[in-house]
Every structure is written in C-alpha cells, then in structure tokens.
Specification:
alpha+beta, Butyryl-Coa Dehydrogenase, subunit A, domain 1, Butyryl-CoA Dehydrogenase, subunit A, domain 2, Butyryl-CoA Dehydrogenase, subunit A, domain 3, 3 domains, 4-stranded antiparallel β-sheet, 3-stranded mixed β-sheet, 12 helices
Length: 403
Amino acid sequence: MNFEYSKTTLDWINKVQGFVEEHVAPVEEDMHSFTEDPDNRWKVPPQLEALKRRAREAGLWNLFLPPEYGAFSPGLSNLEYAPLAEIMGRCEVRSEVFNCSAPDTGNMEVLAKYGTPEQQDQWLKPLLAGEIRSSFLMTEPAVASSDATNIECSITREGDEYLIQGHKWWSTGVLHPRNKLLIVMGKTNPDAERHRQQSMILVPTDAAGVEVVRPLEVFGSVHSPGGHGEVQLNNVRVPAENLILGEGRGFEIAQGRLGPGRIHHCMRLIGAAQFALELMCRRVDARVAFGRKLSAQGSVRADIARSRCEIDQARLLTLAAADAIDRVGAKGAMDLIAMIKIVVPRMCQEVVDRAIQMHGGLGVSSDVPLTRLFAYARFVRLADGPDEVHLSQLGKRTIQQYL
C-alpha cells in the first residue's frame, strides 16, 4: 500500500529495514531454533547481544518513546514509529534487537511518565540501556481480570514498607534470565471508590517471597526465553518508595500505559499478517494441483485479494489511531484504539489461517512460521483486554454519540 509517509518516516523505515536485512534476517531462524531447544529454553540466543549492540550504535534504539518523553525519546511520534513496529512484527525476535519489546516498552513508559527520579535511576535507565528485562503483573487466575476492579492481590502499608500478597499469571517475560523487575497491580484500599482501590508497585524479581510457580504454554509453546509465568507473591516486602505515583492511582497509570502499547501490538500484527500474505503468494505460485497452479484457482485468488484488502484497511485504521494519539492523546483517541484492538488481531488470525490452509500439511508444521504467527494473533485477542470488553465499551460510546 502506498501510504504517504513523510520523508522522515521513510528514512527511518529504510534504516530499520536495511538493518534487518543485513544483520537480523540471516540469523532469525537460528535464534528461534536455539530457544526451542529444551537445553536452551531459558537462555538468551548468543547472537542477540551483538545485534542489540549494533542497533544501539546505529541509533536504532528505544524507537517507541514519543517526543513527550524528552531526553528518553529518539524523537519519533507514534505515527512515525508505527511502520517500524510493522517491520519488527514479521519475526518475534526483532523487537528486542531494537529494545522495543513488550512488556518492557509499556513498563518504560510508566517509569518515564510517572516514576520518581530515584525509580528512574534504579530501573528505567537499565531498561533503556537494554541491560535488564521486566514484567507487568496484573492478570489473576482466580478472578476475571478483564474487569480490573476484580483484582484481589493486596498491597498493604506497614510502616516504611508495603506488604504484597497475591497470585498472578500470564506474567509475560517473568522467566527471562535478565528479568529484574516486576510492576505489580494490586489493591491498597478495598473500601475506596471502585477505580481508586488499585495501585502499582515496583518489586525486584529477587525479593523474598516472589515465586515463579511454572511457565505457561501458549498452544504448546512456552515462548522462551521470556515466557509467560504463574507467580505467587507470598508476603513480599518492598520499601514504601517503590509505590508508583501514589495510592489509588493504578487505573490512571494503566490507561496511560495501554494506549500507545496497543498501537505497537497492532502494527506488529499487521507485519505478521503481511508476512503471511507474502508466504501465501509464493506458495500458491509454486504449487500445482489438478493440473494447474494453485494461483490460477478462483477461490485462492479471492482469499488472497480479501487478505490484502483486510491488511490495508487495518493498517490505515491503526495509523489513524497513532495519529490521533499524537494529536489529542490516548484519552481523545480511545474509540480508535478500541477499534484497532478489535479489528487487527482478528484480521491477522484470519489471514494467517488462510495461509496455513494454502500450505496444506506444511502450514501446521514448524518448518514455516505460520503456527507461531497464528498463536501470536490469537493470544493478543485476550491480551490488554479481550475483544468483548472493547466491543462493549465502543458500542456504549457510539450509542451515546448518536443520541
């Protein structure tokens, strides 16, 4: 699609794409194979640190932070970063090469926007340098966490400390060997107004009482080396100064964290869908059935045309959301953010499913990356709020707009 990107954006696209083609693409599958080996499951691929060092030297680092973050930002707007996230979405390892991986991106935004100077020195600077990883602990197995007011994890003030007791899961990145920080959402005041009960607090991964119970599998994969973990917080004590922004500010922080993060997720998914479309086209041109190429079959052409339309529509909608965040902020762009969260993961899932079908038995094997792309799209339909939450809220606001 010939979207009219600015010259600045095109320059960044060319820089990132050129770096990927020269340095990252040749070793992507090697890195994936390394982490899929059970003996290396929780180890960092040996090529990764060298790639990160090269990317930082090339100035392709922390690209996700918009100008409002001052010295922490490379100067790109959300709209300018969006096509770069699309390039990164074609393979899961690419984001970390540029220090643009979730959940670190959201956690860095939280610390840059709401953290004290001391919190930034201790945690934000090592994250910005790519020296450590982090996790965001919100979802709980015992309650429907799509309604965050259900969260039961307790954060209780005791003198100069907070005592944390809770049970979390789907804590992305918690098994990464360089994970040093957990941002935990829990309740500090259960008797307050529903959206003022929750707070966020910084917990070192090595704090006494932090127990990673097990890694969780997504369609049979543990997504190493970061994974998704079930975590028990057993009377964990941290200094009172580890609280972010203040008691009862958890919802406020969460909303500030999730707006730009959904742009990142959706653009990565568009990259995954675009990759699946390209694989689909190559497959049908090379495969012959019933005396002619699959590419000559009308139903095949229709599915490819439909996929291209859906990808381009989703891309334009996501770019519109990114532009709106830049102009009016995440709150002003909430309808567009909800739309892309509803539309894009489902679009990617359906496009990848078509690609799997056209690859036949090969499509469901590990010889091509389609099953990984499908699992990613399906997973994101639950991450950062399930489809139903966004549909309900968007529908409610739409009705109000037309009354």
